[in-house]
Queue: 2 jobs
Job 1
Amino acid sequence: MTVLFAIAIVLAAVSSLGVVLSRQTIYSALSLVLTVGMLAVLFLLLNAQFLFAVQLIIYAGAVMVLFIFIVALLSPDAEDRPTLDLRAVIGILGVVVVTGLVFVAARNGITYNTNGFHAVAVGGASNPYHTFSFPPDAVNNAGNVQTVAGQLFTNYLLPFEITSMLLLVAAIGAVYLTRRSSQ
Amino acid sequence: MLNLNLFPYLLGLSAFLFTVGAMGVLIRRNPIVVFMCIELMLNAANLALVAYGRFLNSEEGQIFAFMVIVVAAAEVVVGLALITQIFRLGRELDVDDLSEMKE
């Protein structure tokens, strides 16, 4: 389990660097496919089976195919290798500093202070939002698609419906933007 | 039960992916690659949400991540439509040259 985590984390980090540093756009797209796939593996290891499927179907399936289709359609030239100018230096500094700070904060704040790390039991009486009641370990048992769906279609029904409106607006917008003007 | 020691590594990977994506937005000039870097940042946020949800025994992180995926899909559709339209207008695909909105 830990070995799988390590492999997925390392591959995701390396391939994300490939997205930024590849000169050819198609290599960036393929690196992003690998990153998205490794994140799907991490979702599965984190017991988010539904998101694992959604990540593979929507990201690796639909979004990345759309990206590669557009790259093939426009066939952009290879860029020059990014030079080490001020923007690159700021970016590299940001990567190092923010990653280090988050890692140290998470390690010292959460892992070594288990008293301060309270887990709220799903369906517990203390949590007023969990009207859809499950035993406390339900999230950790296999097949938590049921608990996710229970939340999604009860407490989060309105945001779920609003996302359907968002998808409709995006589809109409894409059709409007890409239509040929008649004049 | 999952090992709690893994949690800082997951959050660290999330921060790393997010900042690498931000760096890509800064240094790359091709708008398609810039969109890919934005996808990278959204995925980093998803990873943080799912990791927190897993370690706090709550499925709400997964629901928020699901919403983020839907928003990212909508954003990609509109953004790639804009890029194809810019390409059709005969402009060069370079975000440094596309700084004004007039045609």
Job 2
Amino acid sequence: MTETTPDLAPSDLECRDLVKEFSEFRAVDGVSFDVPQGSFFSILGPSGCGKTTLLRMIAGFQSPTSGDLLIKGRSMIGVPPNKRPVSMVFQHLALFPTMNIGENVGFGLRQRGVARAEIKRRVGEVLERVGLPGVSERRVDQLSGGQKQRVAIARCMVLEPDVLLLDEPLGALDLKLREHMKVELKALQAAFNTTFVYITHDQSEALVMSDNIAVMNKGRFEQIGTPQEVYHAPRTAFVAGFVGDANRIPVQVVDATGGTLTLKTGGGAPLKLDAAAQGSADWRPGQRAEVFLRPEAVDLLPAGSEQAEAANMVPGVVDAVLFNGANSTVTVRASDGSLMTAALPQTGVLAALRKGDAVTTRWHPSQARCYPVAEG
Amino acid sequence: MASDTSKLGFYLLLAPILLWLALLILLPHVGLFLVSISEKIGPREYETGFGNYSAFFTEPLYWRTFARTAIMSILATALTLLLGFPIAYYIAKITRGRTKTTLFLMCMIPFWVSELVRTFGWMILLRETGVFSQFLQWAGLVSGPVEMLYNDAAIMVGLVYTSILFMVVPLVTTLDSLDDSLIEAGYDLGGTTTAVMREIVIPHAMPGIVSGCIVVFMLSLGNYLTPILLGGKDSLWFTGMIYTQFITRFNWELGSAFGFLLLALSSLVVFLGLKLSGRSLSETMGRS
């Protein structure tokens, strides 16, 4: 038997300790990551976190202050944008208004000196693949927002780039279309089997589409992981607060012995957490910390229902019901005045919950995450 | 009635422009046309006919001057475009913020001074005892004084100089409206600088180019001061010829005919220019 070496998927894109300094501040601060071939990689962060600068460095419109950037193992430092095997879908798509759709999509091929008949064939082919056959002769302003989106992707994909960069292309669309395009983008990525690097500030876009997400804040990557990891096991307080909704409870450590972390809130109520579920294990009594708890991790027990005594049970009254279909939430005020947001399933007895009703909140010690607060 | 008041307001607002057009443009042209088709057959005796127009075509000096004026104006327009486009591109696309405002202002400042004074400025530079001539002598490049005034090149310099602002302003406006990401997209898709210019920037700037060219061409064709001062007696500019007919020769009839021919010429060239660039006048004026 011959031993076969496992086929390591080569990285399409690799950044090594990338830094971009502007005169006043560091926009990108020591970012390292690699994106395997054919995967959908998202960079998620609030506006001003440096994600656009990072993307523009990959595209070649800005050059890094230090660090290295490799595409298919080849360093891209000093390579101008028109010589890089990457294409970019711009935030406002940047379709050329003076050209029709066919000329737009064929632009890149014309620059490569491909024969006219061949351009026509390949443009037709790629437009068909994005689901827009026969639009070549139309003008840009005759297409709808979603169609323009697909033309912008077709214009890049016709060049068969190694990496496709997308700069928040869904930002300009209305909500319904955005939901639809999320699914469609993911399907297109799978169909073309090209590496997509997608930047966004919308966590739901990143969670739905990505194979891997990097959460970026103040020029640094806080965490890189699958959507599940980032959502369920956020490494830092920033990630826990930025990705998804969370109740944020300021606490003080009481006891950290054994498998349980005992905390107390500002109001004095005791909380218990599984110490094993926490990233950090170094807890001192008296230390200040913050607990992050997802609304869907909170169980609601209507008054009168028989429940066994368990950890983290707090009686309270309903402060507000925010009806939002399947994403409805309820805010419960505990006796010490603290508020807790919980998901409100629109089925069963809880759907009838009204403001002022007595209700008990409960959550399992393994469901919440606790992060120490930097002193000072 | 509300609609009556608003109608009255509309006509009141329209009145100044209508008066302007009727009294200052339409009426003089009607008068000019009537004068141009009257032939003098004796003292205070006139008869209607196209003799003044035929005089233009039979006398080679007249129509040659006419053609020379047209060709020089087209050349001046082309030169202004070639010089103005890089300036406008630099102001609109490369500089940012305060530098941009400053540069734009610096283009404007010379136009605060009267055209006459500016043209005298060129004369001080170019004349035999002028700055350039003396510099060349001082540098030892020439042995005696050089006269740089009173030739076609001097006229061309003056024409380009006086009209370049009217090319730069519409170009900056249209180039400003070009989204930077379109240029970046062009490079991103593998375009060279030449290709990006040819396929993205210039098609976008076309309305500005056309309207700038129209304005510069009209200004050059109708310019009187610059060709006379920088070109001297032999400048042979058509407006100079019209002036001579009216003032020196006191032949208002022929002068009027020349005026009408100049109007026809400028209309024809603008029409041909629009046809060549494939645009309509309303589209060009509406967009820039």
